[in-house]
């Protein structure tokens, strides 16, 4: 497909304190067949309420699926389209749905939307939540129908006050119009939704920790198996999907898998579009819906490059829990597999740029402080390893590091790697640290104290 030519972002995040999901890209430049996530958005940034959503083909996918009366066909279409999870993991949503226990002797379960969006550097779901709530509700109805769920929850971070207000009103609208509740569209299918605001914990991005929090417990991850699709919320089959993932479902069901596959760029095997974003010292930070497989260079170009005299030093492709990439990696297609082969992850697809003047030691200390604070404390490598790495980074940041500290950081990061901890929190914290140590080791070495004799020798040479 041809890519949009404008550089105006859908949403602009110049101020992180007074952020507003303002539509910056003209409606005339977004079309239903190329921009399934954003074509309904308004130029004035106002909410697309039910009447307008219906006027723009809203709930037609629900009508089509319920009239067909075949939930397994919805799952088959999702698998064929290969809608990969947009929350960061990139797992096939259709495959995930196919693993949900169903049958006459299996109780109906839950469909949960993860709207916590706690990943640092990520602000894409907020746009959908605040301006296009009925697209999410539509996707949740389809997900519930495919997975035999009788109730849905939108697990929302408590700071998203405006999103909560918008979602609750939209749910009331949908319920009053017969799109939620009993006997939806005369199909005999019952499903309803409630908004649940969380307490603001990063660990709730892990789906089983989210389920524990939803039930009113401590947000610790669960041992698996059983997986949520077999025993999730309150012991019933449950599916957890990200906001953007669920917002893709109506378009896939209405237009088919081949259409969805045709939306992506030629340089990738992934399908669909992606809400990409750029933040940091760039001229035009914001969000764009682009074909998945768009390169980092194209994305940075849409952000109009680095601001002022800043030069690009490194960049995170999808939030703080992804590995740093270098300027030479900008030519890579930003899809799940390509970025993974470079030792990083696509994550949420929100690029964070790092300027040359930024100390990588200070940046990593700040990031690891966040991850250490957000650890649930359930397993030793995460509970003890992350605070230990913060202490070492603080010492290196202030030039008080000891010989062997960098090697110890290497070991701590390795000990927090995949399959060595209870969930993916610690591996996510370790990935940017490992990349920083690999690409910018000399900056860490500068923080190691020099022996007294070496310091004296250096001083004498300078005086001479």
UniProtKB/TrEMBL annotation:
Organism: Halovibrio variabilis
Listed EC numbers: 7.1.1.-
Family membership: Belongs to the complex I 51 kDa subunit family.
NADH-ubiquinone oxidoreductase 51kDa subunit iron-sulphur binding domain sequence ranges: 361-406
Keywords: 4Fe-4S, Flavoprotein, FMN, Iron, Iron-sulfur, Metal-binding, NAD, Quinone, Translocase
SUPFAM superfamilies attached to this UniProt entry: Nqo1 FMN-binding domain-like, Nqo1 middle domain-like, Nqo1C-terminal domain-like
Function: NDH-1 shuttles electrons from NADH, via FMN and iron-sulfur (Fe-S) centers, to quinones in the respiratory chain.
One GO molecular-function entry: quinone binding
Protein name: NADH-quinone oxidoreductase subunit F
């Amino acid at each position: 497909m041809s890519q949009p030519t404008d550089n105006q972002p859908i949403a602009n995040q110049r101020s992180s304190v007074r952020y507003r999901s303002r539509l910056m890209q003209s409606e005339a430049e977004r079309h239903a067949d190329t921009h399934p996530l954003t074509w309904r958005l308004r130029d004035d940034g106002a909410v697309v309420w039910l009447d307008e959503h219906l006027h723009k083909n809203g709930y037609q996918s629900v009508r089509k699926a319920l009239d067909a009366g075949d939930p397994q066909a919805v799952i088959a279409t999702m698998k064929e389209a290969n809608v990969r999870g947009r929350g960061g993991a990139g797992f096939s949503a259709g495959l995930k749905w196919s693993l949900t226990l169903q049958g006459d002797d299996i109780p109906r379960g839950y469909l949960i939307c993860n709207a916590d969006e706690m990943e640092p550097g990520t602000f894409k779901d907020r746009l959908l939540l605040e301006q296009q709530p009925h697209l999410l509700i539509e996707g949740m109805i389809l997900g519930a129908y495919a997975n035999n769920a009788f109730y849905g929850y939108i697990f929302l971070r408590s700071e998203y006050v405006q999103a909560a207000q918008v979602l609750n009103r939209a749910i009331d609208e949908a319920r009053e119009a017969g799109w939620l509740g009993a006997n939806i569209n005369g199909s005999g299918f019952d499903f309803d939704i409630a908004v649940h605001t969380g307490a603001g914990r990063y660990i709730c991005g892990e789906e089983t920790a989210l389920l524990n929090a939803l039930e009113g417990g401590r947000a610790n991850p669960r041992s698996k198996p059983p997986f949520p699709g077999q025993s999730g919320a309150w012991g019933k089959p449950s599916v957890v999907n990200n906001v953007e993932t669920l917002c893709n479902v109506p378009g896939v069901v209405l237009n088919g898998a081949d259409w969805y596959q045709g939306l992506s760029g030629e340089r990738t095997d992934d399908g669909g579009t992606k809400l990409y974003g750029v933040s940091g010292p760039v001229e035009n930070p914001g969000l764009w819906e682009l074909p998945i497989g768009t390169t980092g260079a194209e994305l940075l170009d849409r952000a109009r490059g680095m601001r002022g005299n800043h030069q690009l030093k490194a960049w995170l492709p999808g939030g703080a829990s992804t590995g740093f990439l270098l300027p030479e990696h900008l030519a890579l297609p930003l899809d799940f597999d390509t970025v993974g082969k470079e030792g990083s992850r696509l994550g949420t697809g929100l690029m964070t740029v790092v300027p040359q003047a930024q100390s990588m030691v200070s940046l990593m200390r700040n990031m690891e402080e966040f991850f250490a604070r957000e650890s649930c404390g359930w397993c030793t490598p995460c509970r003890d390893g992350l605070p230990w790495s913060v202490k070492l980074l603080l010492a290196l940041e202030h030039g008080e590091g000891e010989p062997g500290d960098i090697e110890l950081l290497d070991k701590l990061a390795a000990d927090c790697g995949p399959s060595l901890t209870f969930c993916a929190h610690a591996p996510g914290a370790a990935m940017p640290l490992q990349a920083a140590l690999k690409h910018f080791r000399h900056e860490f070495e500068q923080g190691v104290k020099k022996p007294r004799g070496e310091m004296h020798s250096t001083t004498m040479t300078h005086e001479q």
